[in-house]
């Protein structure tokens, strides 16, 4: 799956920022390792202060991440489905380029 994260991060989805890609990889790795136990918002914050942005990127790539409130200000995140496979991401990127690449004459 790391290759899929790299492929996704290499596209314009996150403006080519390597830091964001590394954070996304670390978050997904932690969520995969934890399985049903998940990871808390505190743990994700330790990886990326704006971890919500990384979760958004993961969801945009096809991940399903469940969120449960444990207490005031503390949430649990559980990965229910990992990011989509590379061919799907490539198709989405190609469609995106076609949509935004139109030139009016």
Report low-confidence residues grouped into runs of 5 or more.
10-16, 86-90, 97-105
Number of domains: 1
Order of helices and strands: HHEHHEEH
Q: How many separate helices?
A: 5
Form type: globular
Distance N terminus to C terminus?
42 Å
Provide the spatial order of strands within the biggest beta sheet. 1-3-2
Main sheet attributes: strand count, strand direction, barrel closure: 3 strands, antiparallel
Judged by helices, strands and strand pairing, the structural class is alpha+beta
* Average pLDDT figure: 76
Number of extended strands: 3
Percent range of helical residues: 55-70%
What is the percentage of strand-forming residues? 15-25%
- What's the Cα radius of gyration? 15 Å
Q: Could you walk me through the main structural features you see in this protein, from its secondary elements to its overall organization?
A:
It is a single chain. The chain is an alpha+beta fold and 105 residues long. The chain has one domain. It is built from 5 helices and 3 strands; from the N terminus they run ααβααββα. The chain has helices at 2-10, 18-34, 41-47, 51-60, 86-100; strands at 39-40, 64-71, 74-81. The protein has a 3-stranded antiparallel beta sheet with strand order 1-3-2. A hairpin with a 2-residue loop joins strand 2 (64-71) and strand 3 (74-81). The radius of gyration is 15 Å and the shape is globular. The relative contact order is 0.17. Mean pLDDT is 76; it is low at 10-16, 86-90 and 97-105.
